[in-house]
Amino acid sequence: MSNNLKRVAIAQLCSSADLAKNLKVVKELIFKAIQCEADVVFFPEASDYLSQNPLHSKYLAQKSPQFIQQLRSDITDLVRENSRNIDVSIGVHLPPTDQDLFDGNDRVKNVLLYINYEGKILQEYQKLHLFDVDVPNGPILKESKSVQPGNAIPNIIETPLGKLGNAICYDIRFPEFSLKLRSMGAEILCFPSAFTTKTGEAHWELLGRARAVDTQCFVIMSGQDGVHDLSDLEWEKQLHVTNSIKSPMRESWGHSMIIDPWGKIIAHADCQKSGPQLIVANLDYELLRKIRISMPLSNQRRNDLFH
């Protein structure tokens, strides 16, 4: 393959409240990505689990460190067995630290991990913008009830694909964040997500293409898709949970896609297909260079006026 082309894979899945089941799907998709000769595979937000409500999320988050540890081991095993390196970007949760609990904060963390082919975590980005909204004719979601926001812009990661800037889902609605990542050197932006169907239908593609054009970056949008199985008999029995206090059914938009720096969708999920999917594309860096040279937005910004 030409040095100007980099092969990327994005995974689309429908995570449940069963972390072991979700991990099995993740491992199968990593294997497929290796078979497709991808250098990096991107998974959605909350690939470890989706929950019924904040209390359930705090319970499940205690199992996430084991999910992550096993995933790291699985990556190194797959790399060794297939004699081919692959890095993995994946959205997961982390439980509160001892210091968080001491400070009276028992909310979980929504994070994006970048794990290299050696199983090393190169970055742990904590979601900055939390989805606290009342969607017209749609769901009322208050992510801040169960999730604590991050407070740091992530560094750019040098990856086999190029320079990567990390964000998560709702972060895509804040263009200043994407522009900041571009100013730091990003060539690729990723937005692993679990978009609702209402907001997804209205804005998913629009936001992704807008961020690509704003920043002249490749945009990677891996999404949760379909109706999530949030049942958890072990937890419900333990806490005597009844159907009357469970959260409503959760459904995600899917429509995972890869967008080039001109705002063109170069690969996307098959919307007629259910179940996990892997979408593969080549990123054309000659195209990125031509776009940035012919329309030098970065040099033309009025940084003397806008800070």
UniProtKB/TrEMBL annotation:
UniProt keyword terms in alphabetical order: Cytoplasm, Hydrolase
Keyword Hydrolase: yes
SUPFAM superfamilies per UniProt: Carbon-nitrogen hydrolase
A single Gene Ontology CC term: cytoplasm
GO MF terms, alphabetically ordered: hydrolase activity, acting on carbon-nitrogen (but not peptide) bonds, in linear amides
Main location: cytoplasm
Subcellular location(s) of the protein: Cytoplasm
Span of domain CN hydrolase: 6-285
UniProt-listed InterPro entries: C-N_Hydrolase (IPR003010), C-N_Hydrolase_sf (IPR036526), Nit1/2_C-N_Hydrolase (IPR045254), UPF0012_CS (IPR001110)
Pfam families: CN_hydrolase (PF00795)
Similarity field: Belongs to the carbon-nitrogen hydrolase superfamily. NIT1/NIT2 family.
PANTHER family in the record: DEAMINATED GLUTATHIONE AMIDASE, NITRILASE-RELATED
Protein name: CN hydrolase domain-containing protein
Species of origin: Saccharomyces kudriavzevii (strain ATCC MYA-4449 / AS 2.2408 / CBS 8840 / NBRC 1802 / NCYC 2889)
